Amino acid sequence: MERYDLIVLGGGVSGLGVAREAVSRSLRTLVLEADVCGKATSDNTLRIIHGGFRYLQTLQIPRVFRSLGDQSYVCRQYSQAVQPLPCLMPLARFGLKSRIPVTAAALAYGMAMWMTGSPLAVPRVISGREFGEIFPSLADRGSGGALCWHDAVMTRPDLISSALLKEISSHGGVIQEHSAVSSVREDASGFIVTTSQGEFTSARVINTLGPWLSSIDIQPDLRGRRPLWCKGFNIVTHKRLHATHAIGVEGGGRLFFCVPRGEGTAIGTWYVPVPELGATEKPSVSDVELDQFLAAFNAAVPEFQIVKEDLVGIDVGVLPMRRDGAKGPELYGSEVISATHGYAEVMSTKYTTFRSQGARALAQLR
Ligand SMILES: Cc1cc2nc3c(=O)[nH]c(=O)nc-3n(C[C@H](O)[C@H](O)[C@H](O)COP(=O)(O)OP(=O)(O)OC[C@H]3O[C@@H](n4cnc5c(N)ncnc54)[C@H](O)[C@@H]3O)c2cc1C
Predict the structure, then answer these.
(1) What are the boundaries of each domain within the chain?
(2) What is the pTM of this model?
(3) In this predicted structure, what is the pLDDT of residue 324?
(4) Quick check: CB of 41 below 6 Å from ligand 1?
């Protein structure tokens, strides 16, 4: 039986992020992936590399800095696969999203960007006239002005996973695709991981299987928290709303984010609670779910009607949600890591954070 310092279960961006961090610390690392790395939820995102502007609203200052750090890292390290994405959000008349608080937040965020050396342009509040010139078809929505900030967008997500795979292998990490894990057990010598390709042992295991987290047989005393799982999907249309700018539009109590993709637009994200996935089960979108999304979007943004025939794709993945609350199930704001001695489970909620998430998972095992 081959022995490693660390075995990572799952080769999505979370698993690759952990493995990359581990090999950089000279840990002999094995990644076990049932299929092909980076092709599940990690290949079905809205492709935004987020900063932390939204966390200012709830004054989560350390998180603003951490998100900016993660964003800057991805923009610099994988510059061939991402590009800056100017984003607009029409201002509200009153409240936290109105002109004065948003202008103050933009100044504070610009300062944080400067302090973290962000390569992106600082945010600013633009006039209703400027908004109307950028989005003539939505001019009425932004007549009171808009916030303009920059995130980044992945133009080639495949390049990020292939770069991560290269970084892991060049530091001696082993990646085994088409190796479905079936169980994790602990004995006096450490952990024994059983796969379709054989057994491996290690002093530490990090489970990043996402919605397949407990489709494998895990010794009961090792299991972490179990959330509700939520299918999330984006629609991709050939219709172009804008060539370069993304926009967040609210309607019917939901926020729809429209992002340029190729010649068209990706629009997200719609969430539907689902049971945890079985071993080989893949998430999919039913006709009813798609109709509900289109009806809600068309009611919220009647200026940009989409019908099924306009679609060129649907991105679908699964994310963890909080179990309860008066408002019903809610998406976790950030990753959840549960760790006992030597074994950790990572539930990711953002692609962008794979580096800091990997470092935190390893730190929790020590
Ligand atoms: C619609 C949508 C839009 C999103 N948009 C954004 C965005 O714009 N920006 C952002 O930062 N984040 C976004 N996210 C969140 C982000 O996609 C996820 O947080 C992240 O991709 C999760 O990565 P992961 O590695 O944890 O999961 P996954 O990518 O699902 O990886 C899990 C891996 O485990 C493997 N596996 C399963 N069973 C086994 C087994 N038995 N043995 C071995 N391997 C197994 C699977 O094949 C898979 O490769 C979005 C998510 C969704 C659903």
Answers:
(1) 2-42+158-227+332-365, 228-331
(2) 0.96
(3) 63
(4) yes
Cα 76 to the chain's mean position, in Å? 18
Q: Which CATH number fits domain 228-331: 3.30.2350.10, 3.40.430.10, 3.30.9.10, 3.10.580.10?
A: 3.30.9.10
Over residues 176-216, the pLDDT tens digits come to 999 999 999 999 999 999 999 999 999 999 999 999 998 99
The better pLDDT of the pair 276, 261 is held by: 261
**In this structure, how many other beta carbons lie within 10 angstroms of the beta carbon of residue 134?**
18
Atom of ligand 1 nearest to the CA of 195: 42
Q: Closest ligand 1 atom, CA of 10?
A: 34
SS (H, E, C) 286-353: CHHHHHHHHHHHHHHCHHHCCCHHHEEEEEEEEEEEECCCCCCCEECCCCEEEEECCEEEEECCCCCC
Pocket test for ligand 1, best of 45, 206, 255 (most atoms within 8 A of CB): 45
Q: Could you please report the per-residue DSSP string of 34-49?
A: SS-TT-SGGGSS--EE
Q: Over the stretch 127-169, which tens digit does the pLDDT of each residue have?
A: 999 999 999 999 999 999 999 999 999 999 999 999 999 999 9
